[in-house]
Structures are given as structure tokens and as C-alpha cells.
């Protein structure tokens, strides 16, 4: 995740996609962020 699209922090472990949709089981408290971005990166 990132607050500025430049600096990224890993959030969660590696997973294998088995469908074309994904729903996280993690909870992020975004109240302290002005904006928060997520990306999925292929290894």
C-alpha cells in the first residue's frame, strides 16, 4: 500500500489467484491517511 504512489509497503503474503476477482480479509484503518492506494504485483 502507498500514500503517495512512490513509496510502497508490502501488505499481506503471496497468494495464488484462482478466480478473476479478489476480496481481502485484511482491515486497514484509513482514517489517518489523506489517500491510500493498493496494487497487486505479479511475481
What is the averaged pLDDT score? 80
The low-confidence parts are: none
Portion of residues in beta strands equals under 5%
Secondary structure tally, helices: 0
Radius of gyration: 12 Å
Largest sheet data = none
If you had to describe this structure to a student in words, what would you say it looks like?
There is one protein chain. With 43 residues, the chain is low in regular secondary structure. It is 0% helix and 0% strand. The chain has no helix or strand. The chain is globular, with a radius of gyration of 12 Å.
Can you give me a brief rundown of this structure?
It has no helix or strand.
What are its keywords?
single chain; about 0% helix; globular; about 45 residues
List the helices and strands and how they pair.
Elements: no helix or strand
Amino acid at each position: 500500500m502507498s500514500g503517495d504512489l512512490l513509496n510502497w509497503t508490502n501488505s499481506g503474503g503471496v497468494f495464488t489467484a484462482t478466480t478473476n476477482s479478489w476480496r481481502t480479509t485484511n482491515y486497514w484503518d484509513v482514517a489517518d491517511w489523506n489517500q491510500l492506494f493498493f496494487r497487486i504485483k505479479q511475481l
